[in-house]
Amino acid sequence: MRAMNRAFSFLQRLRGRFSERFLAPEDAARVRVFECLFAASFLLWTGRCFVTWREWLTPDGFHLDAAELRSLGYPGPWPLLEPWQVLLLAAAILAGALLAMRLPWRRAGFALLALCALCVQGTDFMAAFSLNKIYVGVFVLLAAAPAMERDPSSGRAVQSLAPLRVLQATLLLHYLAAGLAKVDGDWLGGHDLLWGYLQGVYRTDATAWALRHLPLWAWAVQQHASLGFELLAPLLFAWRRLRPLAFALGLGFHVLIAVLMKDLVFFSLQMLSFYALFVPSPVWRRWAERLAPVLRRGGGGT
Questions:
Q1: 154 and 37 in one domain?
Q2: Rounded CA gap, 141 and 144, in Å?
Q3: Rounded to whole angstroms, what are the CA distances from 90 to 45, 172, 191, 263?
């Protein structure tokens, strides 16, 4: 009987700890900052793609047909768009982003953005690749997450911790999966794999300069440092005392990706937006209070 009571007490404490860490309401400031940054990165990426909208979404560009996609293990493509449909898609993306910024309409806005990202994915599956898959998944999560409500006492938006924890885990699992894939791809065995990758389609002008001037050992250091960061990211971000180191390493990691790999600046912006989720909400509140007078002065001077 005593053993049963102890087991029941342990389960009660475990349930309370779980509720405290995953289900309790919390100031939603860091989730809102993430939502704004994440939606902004989507606008930047799609805006860059719309510069060449004919090649991107219409029959004027090159697109793999259904048989070619299925041979690669991908689903069949959606119908390509007419010019007026491209314009409608652009308007829907902008409308979704604007709705997502308004607290009462945020879930409807993210649902619309999820549909737009899914349309992009289906129309040009190869060009969208993993970057857009992350947008689809996260937008669906944000649309389905519990609504944010105003705390009557403070007036601040509050939300269950569950969406925050899922989004944090998304970043950590992404890093870990990328690191394990590199281990499986012989990144531990060779010292010139990164140097070789950057010789091809990813090369930028900055990469070409670096390839000419940096010794091979410098590329080996970058290769193994990036692998170590991805494998250790769950520990670095989960342990609060190590988060400053995680932020510094992650920022350097993504800046190098943005500079050295063609068009992956948008991937870096997407990933860095997740870092907002690891900054406590009071810190974001303090920054908002500091910036408010500056923004008011700027608005009054126009």
A1: yes
A2: 5
A3: 12, 31, 44, 20
pTM: 0.88
Comparing CA positions, the residue from 146, 167, 126 lying closest to residue 271 is 167
Please identify which residue in the block is written with the tokens 């979704």: 96
Residues 140 and 223 in one domain: no
Quickly count: other Cβ atoms within 10 Å of residue 15's Cβ: 11
Compute φ and ψ for 198, nearest 5 degrees: -80, 0
Residue 144 has a CB neighbour count (10 Å cut-off) of: 12
Our count of domains for the chain comes to: 2
Domain membership of residue 92 as a residue range: 27-159
Residue with tokens 């070789």: 196
pLDDT tens for the 302 residues of the chain, in order: 665 555 555 445 545 554 555 667 788 899 999 999 999 999 999 999 999 999 999 999 888 888 888 887 777 788 999 999 999 999 999 999 999 998 889 999 999 999 999 999 888 887 777 788 899 999 999 999 988 888 777 778 888 889 999 999 999 999 999 999 988 877 877 788 888 888 888 888 999 999 999 998 998 899 999 999 999 999 999 999 999 999 999 999 999 999 999 888 999 999 999 999 999 998 998 888 877 676 555 554 43
Q: Which of 159, 190, 222 is the last residue of a domain?
A: 159
Let me know whether 151 and 222 are in one domain: no
Compute the chain's Rg from CA coordinates.
Answer: 22
Residues 35 and 118 in one domain: yes
CA distances from 224 to 182, 189, 210 (A): 10, 10, 17
Q: How many CB atoms lie within 10 A of CB 153?
A: 6
45 and 136 assigned to the same domain: yes
- Rounded Cα distance between 184 and 39, Å, is 33
User: In terms of domains, do 187 and 123 share one?
Assistant: no
26: helix, strand or coil: strand
- 134: number of Cβ within 10 Å: 19
